Amino acid sequence: MTSELDVETDKWEDAENDILKRAKNMSSMAYSMYLFTRGEGPLKTTQDLFKQAEYFAEEGNKLFRVLKDFNCMIPEGGLLPDQLVHHLQSLPSLCQQLHYTTKSPSLGKIQTFAKVNGSIQETKNLLASISQMLPLCNTLVVKYNIRTPHSTHPIWRHGGPVMETRSNGDDSDSAASVLSTKSDGSLLRNVKTIANIDAFDRI
């Protein structure tokens, strides 16, 4: 799954885009968790894995806030694709579920194994959702010439003005907060439950 995400990140021209940077960081964290299931990498114990999964969920919350700011940069009258709306609305619950799993007690080998399996499964679910969002966000970046605060790559394919973010740099918002909506209510749509995705092969 990390390879799928890496394929999508390689397609972005703006290497300093905040969405892209968060996604790359999460891909690297997930890869360390995958290596753990193979007995490799920097994570040596199950506690290391659970702590990494906790950080991964926190990074997902930060990505959600970046995506909320990104939504505000879509020009008036512009609409987010239904699929992107679906994944945006699902992201907080995916992060919350992973965080809950990392904090759940586990006594003995059977419970610990189940907790490891659940952490890996939910990490992969979160990665899958992000992998679906990245190409959709990249399309909007190019279409509307959007730049995030740390963007350095100029985008002028369509001759439109560059849209600057109105971020206040505050990461204190709750990931469970409601997505910013436009007057047309385009984000207030019913969404389907994300299908379960298989866990890493070795777990």
List keywords for this structure.
elongated; 56% helix; mainly alpha
Structure characterization notes:
This protein is an all-alpha fold and 203 residues long. Helices cover 56% and strands 2% of the residues. Strands 1-2 form a two-stranded parallel ribbon. α2 (18-37) packs antiparallel against α5 and α3 (46-72) runs parallel beside α5. The two termini are 14 Å apart. The model is unreliable at 153-203 (pLDDT under 50).
In short:
The chain has 203 residues and is mainly α. Helices cover 56% and strands 2% of the residues.
Give the secondary structure arrangement, pairings included.
Blueprint: H1 2-9, H2 18-37, H3 46-72, H4 82-103, H5 108-144, E1 146-147, E2 163-164
Parallel strand pairs: 1-2
Helix pairs in contact: 1-2, 1-5, 2-3, 2-5, 3-4, 3-5, 4-5
Please give the alpha-carbon distance between the first and last residues.
14 Å
Strand order of the largest sheet: 1-2
What is the percent of helical residues?
Answer: 55-70%
Please, how many helices?
5
Report the radius of gyration as a whole number of Å. 18 Å
Overall average pLDDT = 78
Main β sheet profile? 2 strands, parallel
Catalogue the unreliable spans.
153-203
What does the overall shape look like?
Answer: elongated
Number of strands: 2
Task: Please provide the ordered H/E string of secondary-structure elements.
Answer: HHHHHEE
The secondary structure category is mainly alpha
In terms of DSSP E residues, the strand content is: under 5%
